[in-house]
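Internal QA ticket QA-208
Title: Verify multi-chain structure generation after dependency bump
Assignee: T.L.

Test input:
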Amino acid sequence: MNIAVLAKQVPDLVEGVEIDAGGKAVDPTSIRFILSESDDHALEEALLLKERTQGRVEVFSLETGEVRDTLCTALAKGADRVVTVQTGLELPPDNHTAAKMFASLLRGLPFDLVFTGVRAIDDLDGSLGGLLAGYLGFPYVGLVRKVEAAAAGGAVVVQKEYPGGYAAEMEVRLPAVLGIQAAEQPPRYVPVSRLRQVMKTGTVEEQMVSPPPAEPVGIERLFKPEEGAGAAMLSGSPDEVARQIVNLLSERRLLR
Amino acid sequence: MDKGILVVAEHFQGRLNDITFELLGKGRELAQALGVKLAVVLFGDGTAKFTGELGAADAVYVVDRPGLREFAADAYCGLLEAALKDAQPRLVLMGSTSVGLDLLSLLSAAANLPCIDNCMRLEVKDGAVVATCQIYGGKIYAEVALPPVTTLVAVVPGTFPAEAGKVSGQPVVASLPLAPERPVVRTVFRKWIEPPPGDTDITKVPVLVSVGRGIQNAENLPAAEELAEVLGGAVCGSRPVIDQGWLPLTRQVGKSGMTVKPKLYFALGISGAPEHVEGMKQSELIVAVNTDPKAPIFGAAHYGAVVDALDLLPLLVEEVRKQSVKKAG
Amino acid sequence: MGTLQPEITLEKPGAVFPEIAQIPELFRTCIQCGVCSGSCPMGEVMDFSPRKAAKMIADGRFEEVVSSNTPWLCVACHTCQVRCPSQLLIPDGLFPALRAAVMAEGKPMEQDLQKALQNTYLYGNPMGQSPRKRAEWTNTAGVPVPIISQIKRPVEALWIVECYPSYEPRNQEISRKLARILNALGVDFAILGHEERCLGDCEWLAGERGLFEMLIERNIEILGKYRFKEILITDPHAYRTLLNIYPRMGGTFRVKHYVQFLAERLGQLKPLLKKKLNATVTYHDSCCLGRKTGHYDEPRALLQGIPGVKLVEMIQNRESALCCGGGASTIYLDRYIQERVKDRLADRRVEQATATGAETLAVACPFEPSRFEDAIKVINQEGKLVVRDVIELLAESMELG
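Actual output:
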């Protein structure tokens, strides 16, 4: 199986995200970039499938943030080829724009599967995988937690997560795009010494893609919800506290 | 459907999901504000049993076929595309769910319609629809003015009240127009995989009643279990409780246990050691009860009370039961 | 009093611990006496005891040992290493080598540990907190805690606070109290603040040589920017690593753990210890302060300096003290270990504490408070035994809150 993995860099919430002075975008200077968590799972699942089917994994990432670290980590984990996609854009694009660029990049290439994380923390206009599938005319299944080659060939059998611990087993004809929720095992660890070695000797290719005409989501403003510090304390006898708590739950529609 | 509001209904194992009613309730409100009609599209195999519950809508458009018993994004997409292009509804509402999340993006690209996700507020302002969406793990909200063309919107479940969408009445039921006889479908549902019996995955439960050493001994567990039951949740615990053997390892919350993000997390008699808080601090609503006013759990909780959890538990159960009777009545 | 320039010797960096292939040569003086296995508190649950593991590796049976549970059960208590007649490096050599081999083979790792290592790589601390928040604990210290990059002058003591005492709430309280004690003693000190990164004890003992090298390079660079007479450190693990391992990699500093630092100033402290505590206290010798570096007397001197404190000893004390089971990164392997042992080390230790009749268990290591407080609940002694860092007892007697 030949698998393309799309890896996106997103703001690292540990370092926080600030809104810029204009109030309609995130302040790029406040951001430290990190690989989107479910993309890490997408890579892991791709590597597992490659190991089972003797295939190839190629990782593509748009040139935003500290992409080299991420792509070298992918190489260290076993990816066959990693590519930085240059777009000439100053800021990270929305998912529609990104999906159109990846579609033009991947169209006609002999990939059986495209994996990407089912969601990223900065998603506003849908998920990259579903959009890419729509532009390529491929089938799409999201919230996937397991992928296996179908016995008959030309398809994969996936498990799609539903609430309450349920999952749907689905057969998907290839080529297809899958939105990965979680790999079958946690993303593997790369010892730092190995990563440093790959950063020195590994090859990260570059490809150019022209961005399509922009049709941005009309963000009027970004704002932060109010923050409180510590619990709002409820007082009174256990009876009174019980009533207050249940009223709270009722307000929040948490009672059945 | 023309220029109106369209809701995509969702069902699971023979029942319409709450999100359907949440969207109908909100959709009705939006339709009235915009002076348009509300319709719902329903895919399935044997849909007649659902249509009676969809009274909040003016019309129900149905595709009823054997292959549609379970959801497949390309099937729904292929069937809906032509109708959308023709009728051009103002808004297509779906849940940000296992169904909606897939459909939203695939349909947006295939039909070339704008879409937004993670919506938790929808209002009409001066004839335009404004959506507020949460991003960056809820740390930032984005207010988006929706363009004046058909826009697909995925709404976070639990945002709008389901009761507002549960209206009795018989809407007009018709076949979904322009749905192709044989759409190209390359995903086939094979079977359901059920969760393992008797082993609750607490990471998937919406309400958790978590107990710590403050409940003193295993004999007091049933009180916690009762509260969990009336709230539709499960019992879990902090490390000392598991170490004692009162609950299995699969119920442990914290650094060496599970990380949970339920809608409601009750911390009863838990001091709030960081190793525990790490595993539950992302819960949407945290209510903590501890006899020690300085217990660190109060730093992580949204609401707290300095009372004995053992005194509180039976009173809570009683109060919840009372309020549930009120709702049903 | 000597120069304020720290002694940084720029030697060629040496290996922190051996490769697994070097073990047979390094262990050729192993006489297979079995003292290590007999002393090991985890020996019963290891697939292969340390003695057996060393023999198997000498015979070339790497794979079996690497795939077993043995690499991950060593808590680095050093009971074996101090008793080994051939003075072999067991927790300091054999076990990191085994762990590095597991990682090099790409075998799945315990997730808690993997996360801790990844967090240290990204943020300089295993908790995954922003380095910018490393000095936030000082905001409520009640006394000034200068940050050396801001005061821009040499200091007597550069206080390396380390990760747990900076970020973990129970330990942040202890850090604040130490700040107040230092202030009361008029010590000229400063901290690194947001420039501080993990010193790397857990990382090298976990077998992550590359990560440790990265940390040590960076730390030596940061420390080289500033001038100070000595380093004061609160975390015994970091203390031991800075004292014994950093010099091998080109970073030699004068370093003291707080028990030494304060014991040196006992004459100054005594008049300030006003409040009588009326407590029977037993002191837990942590492995890093005890067996690894020999500081048995200083903490006891401090405790006995507090009025109203009666010091009693546990059955295993000083060189024979029982480990709490959190060293060598096993604090991140609790789940793994819990699935394999019936009697956890921390539980056994607090039982020893209660057996002395003491109501206070005194500690001097940031891992101890939560480990022992949990264990006290497990053995049903809550309310009968409390855990206090020596700093907390001193601060209480000094009425510093």
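Spot checks passed. Chain B has nine helices and 17 strands.
Status: verified.
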